TrEMBL record:
Protein name per UniProt: AprI/Inh family metalloprotease inhibitor
Tree of life domain: Bacteria
Family membership: Belongs to the rhizobiaceae omp19 lipoprotein family.
UniProt-listed SUPFAM superfamilies: beta-Barrel protease inhibitors (SSF50882)
UniProt xrefs under InterPro entries: Inh/Omp19 (IPR021140), OM_lipoprot_Omp19_bac (IPR010571), Protease_inh_B-barrel_dom (IPR016085)
Signal peptide: 1-20
Pfam families in the cross-refs: Inh
Record keywords, A-Z: Cell outer membrane, Lipoprotein, Membrane, Metalloenzyme inhibitor, Metalloprotease inhibitor, Palmitate, Protease inhibitor, Signal
Chief site of localization: membrane
Residue ranges of the region described as Disordered: 25-87
Record-level Gene Ontology MF annotations: peptidase inhibitor activity
Amino acid sequence: MTFSRSGLVAVSLAALFASGCSTSRFSSMDDQQPAPLQPAPAGTVSGSQLPPPAAPGTTDPSQFPTAPAGTQVASLPPDGSAPAGATDLTAASVAGVWNASVSGQSCKVATPQTKFGAGYRAGPLHCPAPIDGIKSWNVAGKQLTLYDENGGTLARLYSSGGSKFDGQTSTGLPISLTR
């Protein structure tokens, strides 16, 4: 009796598949049932009317939380100049991933050295408003500026020494970046 090579391979594969279907390796798992899940607590849901949206490009500072008591952020001079002790910045000194704190809420901001517009691309990671809108950043002298998608300034920060920046958003909220 002669078998062709392809016929022998087909019979071997069929036998292999048939033996795999009859394995008892998983039969012990068929008898076990997972414990039932506890139902989620039921609560009440309340609703209220939201205020009308602001016109594009405008923000009302009263919509955002104020800094919690005890928040330590370096105060900026009222004329917008750099605070005493601020150091000159380079793009390389800012590039990386930062832990951001905005009015006591934490998130991360990525500042790669990828050219974008007049500066570099930026990526907020789970940040509260208005910092969730950061699209780019740039340095000029002692100042780090964070921009929105239209090139509008979202925040200005200055080095507070080491790997820390302090400043405020365009709406007046305190912001700090640390590594």
